[in-house]
Amino acid sequence: MAVDLKAMEALDLWRGAISEGVRRDAPDLSARQMALLLTVYLLPQPHTVRGLAQRLNISKPAVTRALDRLADHGLVRRKADDNDRRSITVQRTMKGSVFLREFGDIIVQAGREATADPEAHTEMAEDSGDGD
Q1: Mean pLDDT, to the nearest integer, of 80-89?
Q2: How far apart are the C-alpha atoms of 100 and 17, rounded to whole Å?
Q3: If you average pLDDT over residues 39-53, what whole number do you get?
Q4: What's the mean pLDDT in 114-128?
Q5: Which of 6-15, 30-39, 108-117 shows the lowest mean pLDDT across its residues?
Q6: Residue 48 in domain
Q7: d(CA 100, CA 64)
Q8: pLDDT > 70: percent of the chain
Q9: In whole angstroms, what is the distance from residue 55 CA to residue 20 CA?
Q10: Which residues contact residue 49 at a Cβ distance below 8 angstroms, ignoring those fewer than 6 apart?
Q11: Nearest Cα to Cα of residue 46 among 95, 97, 74, 84
Q12: Residue 88 and residue 12: Cα distance in Å, rounded?
């Protein structure tokens, strides 16, 4: 599905989604944590710390810290790999699935609101050249 958004429209959609996301009673995730969570849920499994670090081009310790936070919220869980007990796989949880489904709904609503008021994007684009 192709979506034709201008840069300001895309930013306003993201602003609307993030703003609503921080207002609700749910974990307030960093961009790194959200990228990791989306990778775990949207890309084929299995996922390992090493594989996630390579895919996101970030360090393994950064992945581990983000996974710690996501696991604390119950959004992912770690499990020893049955084939290689030294390896840990990252697994999805029901709570994480619900969190992302609700966040997806927020993005859809933000998209509706952003496209309902095209003048908001024009104002921001005009204001950006005044040196403030």
Answers
A1: 82
A2: 12
A3: 94
A4: 59
A5: 108-117
A6: yes
A7: 20
A8: 86
A9: 28
A10: 60, 63, 64, 67, 88, 90
A11: 84
A12: 38
And the tokens for 14?
Answer: 């993201």
Question: pTM of the prediction?
Answer: 0.81
pLDDT of residue 30: 92
Summarize the chain as % helix, strand, coil (round to 5): 60, 10, 30
β-sheet bridge partners, residue 80 = 88
| Closest to 48 measured CA to CA, from 89, 92, 91, 93 | 89
CATH number of the domain enclosing 20: 1.10.10.10
- Answer yes or no: is 35 within a domain: yes
Distance between CA atoms of 20 and 128, rounded to whole angstroms? 24
- Residue 74's domain spans which residues? 7-114
Q: Measured at the alpha carbon of residue 22, what is the angle toward residues 15 and 52, in degrees to the nearest 5?
A: 85
Tokens 């697994």 belong to residue: 91
- Number of structural domains in the chain: 1
Residue 36 lies in a domain: yes
DSSP 83-121: S-TT-EEEEE-HHHHHHHHHHHHHHHHHHHHHHH-THHH
Q: Which residues are within 8 A (CB) of 75 and not within 5 positions of it... i.e. 6 or more apart?
A: 27, 37, 93, 95, 96, 99
